[in-house]
Structures are given as C-alpha cells and as structure tokens.
C-alpha cells in the first residue's frame, strides 16, 4: 500500500460475479445468454484476416457505428462505441458531470457500478430508495437535485421494467439535465428509448452486446444520443484510450447486430423460459419479482438468501447473492436453457 495514491487506497472497487474453476457448474450467476451468437458471428471470425492485426483498429469504429445506426434507425453520428457498456457508463461521469457540482442521482438498489464510477471520478451522488415493492418512483427521482439522472431499465438486480410511456414522461420532465437510460437488458423487454433520442437532446441510451447478442466475452457496448452528447463521450475517450475496440470486435459486433431475426428468436426463448421459471418458483412458494430481464430476483420464504446461494452452490448451481440491506434474502438467478433451469429447480428441491 506504500506507493498507492490516496484514491487507490480508499476506493471500493466493483465486485464482479464469481468465475470459479474448481469444478463445472450450472452457471446462472452473471446473466450470460445461454444460446450461442449468430452464425454470422462465426462467419465474420472465419473471414477475418489475421494479417490486419498488425495495424491499429479504426479509433472511431465507423463501420460498426454505421451497422448499429442501421439497426437502431439513427445516423452513425448519433452512435458511440466502447469496451462494454461499463466503459461507456464510466465515460459518462467526466463527460456530463462536474466535480463539485450537484452530481448524479439514481436508485439505491440498482447496478452497483454506478456509485463506484462516481467515487472514482469524484462525482457526488444521491440515492433514491426504491419503493416497498422495489419499483422506482420516477417522480421522486426527478425531484432530487442533481446534474443528471441514471436509470437502469430493466433494473438490475430486481429485473423490473418501466414502460416506455413512463420513461418518455420522465425524460421530458427533466429536459434541463441529462438523462441516462442503461438498457443492458432491453432485448428481453423490447421497450427501448432509442427512438426518443431523435426527440430529446438530453437523452443518452446505453446498450451492450453482452446480453441480448450472446457476446459477453467480446466486451462491446454502445450509446445512442444527440450528436453533442456523442461528441462529449468521444472527447473523454480520446483522453483515456483512443483504441478501445479491436479489429475483431468491430467486425464481429457489426455482423451480430445485422442478424435481427436470429436474436429475436433466441431472446424469445429466454423470455419464455423466464416466464416458466417464474411460475415454477412461485409454485414452490418462492417470491419472485416481476422480471423483464434475462434473470429473476427471488426470495425463499424460509431460507435466507445466503443459505439458498450456498445450498445451490454445493449442488453445482451458481446464482448471485448480494449481502446488502433490503435484498440480502434475495438471489438473482440468470435464465439459462431449459436444461439448466431444470437443474436449478432440481437442486432447489433438494
């Protein structure tokens, strides 16, 4: 610790989901898609020329941004790409929030990287407690003094989604400040706010290829918003890393986002399994919050969240447990394939 800065000594880093190597698990703890990427991804990899790796990738990811723009119905100038949506969310802090300013506001139970990013970049933040049913009251969030507001929709780890009409009312109500909608799990809800970026200059929508596109191992995300907001992200990116996306990543993700039919089919299977698993769990007397994501947030009536997590882990099934106030008795369970979900139910029965 002798040579660390005061910041490095004091910060509390984000804790990622465990990736154990001691044995093979039914892995339902990090919200990965159970289905493989599009065949177009394999084709893009096989077509890729390794000789091109001697050259730097396009720092603007122009071809990928054009492919995303075509899929999302916006010009490429309204798209920004980063090394996972996490990098984009991190860049939002220096791009849109001032040190010493009013800071950011978001829910107390949401993606736990938000406060980590704020602390790292010296941006203060205000937490709004979720309601008793774990829903987010957007009017209460709007009432908080903040330079900008961040909403995960659907939320993590609760999985609850907010209808697009409510999101638009919220954006319009906060026209004087930036609104960032984190849509990591939107492929399983299908009420994206991207079309609203053409109408509201204060809106930035952040997405990822990790969940809906089965590319968690590729690390690529993107944001859609007003050209001025996109320029702000580019300015901050180029002060940090001009080449965050390698050549293979850009080619693979451009291929993936072009295969709308394939992913619609696979993500429909995830949604179907989500509803089946929810019904099965509730039939066993387990409380399950209404999910619009590729996971469910569940609480056993007799066992603590830690007991459920440990009991399942001992039986070869990994789920995510958060030892935090209000949610310590819940476990977040990724929606797997039918076989994986059946293995979870069998282990839970034991």
Topology:
Elements: H1 6-10, E1 26-27, H2 39-47, H3 62-72, E2 79-82, H4 84-96, E3 104-107, H5 113-121, E4 125-128, H6 138-142, E5 148-152, H7 164-173, E6 178-182, E7 203-208, E8 221-225, H8 227-237, H9 247-257, H10 260-283, E9 287-288, E10 295-299, H11 305-314, E11 317-318, E12 320-321, E13 330-334, H12 338-349
Parallel strand pairs: 1-11, 3-4, 3-5, 5-6, 6-7
Antiparallel strand pairs: 2-8, 7-8, 9-10, 10-13, 12-13
Helix pairs in contact: 2-9, 3-9, 4-5, 4-8
| Integer average pLDDT | 96
Structural class: alpha/beta
Q: How far apart, in Å, are the first and last alpha carbons?
A: 45 Å
The percent of residues in helical segments reads: 25-40%
The order of strands across the largest sheet is: 2-8-7-6-5-3-4
What's the SSE pattern?
HEHHEHEHEHEHEEEHHHEEHEEEH
Q: Count the beta strands.
A: 13
**Broad shape:** globular
Q: What's the main sheet like?
A: 7 strands, mixed
Quaternary state of this entry equals: single chain
Q: How large a portion of the residues is in β-strands, by DSSP E?
A: 5-15%
Detail the poorly predicted runs: none
How many H/I helices?
12
Report Rg.
20 Å
Offer a few descriptive terms.
four-stranded antiparallel β-sheet; 350 residues; seven-stranded mixed β-sheet; 12 helices; single chain; alpha/beta; 13 strands; globular
Give an overview of the whole structure.
- The protein has 350 residues and is an alpha/beta fold.
- Helices cover 37% and strands 15% of the residues.
- The protein has 12 helices and 13 strands.
- The strands form 3 sheets. A 7-stranded mixed beta sheet has the order 2-8-7-6-5-3-4, with helices on both faces. A 4-stranded antiparallel beta sheet has the order 9-10-13-12, covered by helices on one side.
- Helix 3 packs parallel to helix 9 and helix 4 (84-96) packs across helix 5 (113-121).
- The chain is globular and about 55 Å long.
């Amino acid at each position: 610790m002798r040579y660390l800065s005061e910041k490095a000594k004091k910060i509390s880093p984000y804790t990622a989901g465990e990736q154990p190597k001691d044995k093979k698990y039914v892995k339902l703890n990090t919200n990965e898609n159970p289905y493989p990427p599009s065949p177009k991804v394999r084709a893009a990899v096989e077509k890729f020329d390794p000789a091109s790796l001697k050259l730097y990738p396009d720092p603007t990811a122009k071809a990928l941004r054009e492919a995303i723009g075509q899929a999302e119905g916006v010009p490429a100038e309204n798209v920004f790409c980063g090394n996972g949506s996490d990098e984009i969310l991190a860049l939002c802090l220096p791009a849109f929030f001032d040190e010493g300013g009013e800071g950011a506001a978001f829910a107390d139970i949401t993606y736990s990287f938000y406060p980590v990013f704020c602390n790292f970049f010296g941006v203060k933040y205000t937490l709004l407690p979720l309601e008793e049913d774990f829903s987010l009251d957007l009017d209460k969030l709007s009432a908080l003094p903040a330079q900008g507001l961040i909403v995960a929709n659907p939320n993590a780890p609760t999985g609850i989604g907010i209808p697009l009409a409510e999101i638009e009312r919220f954006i319009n109500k906060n026209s004087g400040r930036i609104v960032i909608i984190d849509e990591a799990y939107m492929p399983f809800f299908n009420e994206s706010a991207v079309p609203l970026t053409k109408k509201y200059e204060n809106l930035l929508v952040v997405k990822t290829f990790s969940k809906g596109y089965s590319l968690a191992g590729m690390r690529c995300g993107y944001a859609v918003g007003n050209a001025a907001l996109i320029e702000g992200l580019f300015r901050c990116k180029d002060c940090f890393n001009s080449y965050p996306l390698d050549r293979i990543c850009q080619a693979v993700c451009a291929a993936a986002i072009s295969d709308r039919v394939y992913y619609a089919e696979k993500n429909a299977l995830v949604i179907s399994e989500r509803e089946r698993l929810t019904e099965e769990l509730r039939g066993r007397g387990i409380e399950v919050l209404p999910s619009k994501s590729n996971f469910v947030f569940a609480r056993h009536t007799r066992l603590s969240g830690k007991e459920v997590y440990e009991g399942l882990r001992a039986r070869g099934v990994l789920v995510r447990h958060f030892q935090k106030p209000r949610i310590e008795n819940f476990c977040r369970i990724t929606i797997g394939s039918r076989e994986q979900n059946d293995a979870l139910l069998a282990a839970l029965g034991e």
